[in-house]
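Field notebook, page 394. I keep forgetting to write these up properly, so this time I am using the form the group agreed on. The chain and the ligand, alpha-D-galactopyranose, are recorded exactly as supplied. Prediction of the bound pose follows.
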Amino acid sequence: MLSFDLERLKQTFETVFEAAPERTFFAPGRINLIGEHTDYNGGHVFPCAITFGTYGLVRKREDNLIRVYSLNFENVGVVSFPVTDESYASAHDWANYVKGVVALLRKDGHDVGGFDFLLAGNIPNGAGLSSSASLELVTAFMINDVYGLKLDKLDLVHLGQRVENDFIGVNSGIMDQFAIGMGKAGHAILLDCDTLHHDYAPIKLDGYDIVIMNTNKRRELADSKYNERRAECDQSLELLKAHFEIDALGQLSVAEFETVAVSLPETLQRRARHAISENERTKLAFTALQDGRLDAFGELMNGSHTSLKDDYEVTGLELDTLVTAAQHADGVIGARMTGAGFGGCAIAIVEKTATPAVIDTVTKTYEETIGYAPTFYIASVGDGAHELVEEEVK
Ligand code: GLA
């Protein structure tokens, strides 16, 4: 994992933009403990922010020019555009996320001017740990502060989601931006995506590691498959409305759903079954973690993965290989994919003393089956997006 020396980042800023940065912001990535593909179905999710994230150093400009540079995409170089340029441009590559934030803020009537912005992230790109939502939110928090817009965190969370939906074209739910904007060190967030009611739960995992296991398979085609799953859920909901007064799948219990499930076409039946059962598992997992019933928590994680594999079909050989190998290893209480799926990362809850051995056996099995190595990180659960104050800048 890349780690950044902020003094060096400041020097790079000066070299690139020929003036010193004024302020530094940070937005984390996220993992989701359980509750996958439930957010856009009005169900529950249980994510947390991690300490890997995106750093953004900024200097306000007096004109209307925006210049951005990312150490993660040095080949793209400095991207410049006037604040009035509100169109998606493929040549602007990653900078479209910054552009999207500016464009939507201005559309909402906010007075946003120019800035120079240097970005550096240590979330592995394309690993499903929300590097794009992190970029959206570091930008949104920065502009909000630098231009004194006085929006609250939740406004910025919604803004990030709108950038993804309306500017980038991925029909994603609210989970990633919520976890990144609202995260709290040492806590996961049980979020009801229907009402946005949320509870912070201390992650009581003393003696255990949350191990992130990266398939190192890029989430290619992920966006179109993602939108396809979402459309299938919408179709299921329309059919279920003939039987229930609901406006989201998350409002149904598994027992209610099963009374009419056979009336749905087979594929839609499985998609809806996942969304509805996953919502129940997520609520149970929250209580299990609160009560310190870690075995029950682990079982629910395993059940989540099976449902994502068989009913939702978003795992694939790489994620299944990692997760099955982890589930069979000594000292693992549960494992599942995290995020959208189709590649990216899985997580496992592992007894600390067993972590090195688990990493070894999972690596061996994965290499034998897939032909290349996975990567592992031990997650630490950090705060949501914020400005970095001097003490943190080491
Ligand atoms: C992606 C999306 C989220 C959520 C997850 C699946 O991370 O951005 O909104 O739908 O997939 O749970």
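OBSERVATIONS:
- The pocket of alpha-D-galactopyranose is lined by residues 36-37, 39-40, 172-173, 175-176, 339-340 (CB under 6 Å).
- The chain is about 40% helix and 20% strand.
FOLLOW-UP: compare against the apo run.
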